Amino acid sequence: MAQRLADLGDAAVAAGAEALMFTCSSISQYAAPLADRLGVPVYRVDEAMADEAVRTGDRVSVIATLPTTVQ
Question: Model-level pTM?
Answer without folding.
Answer: 0.74
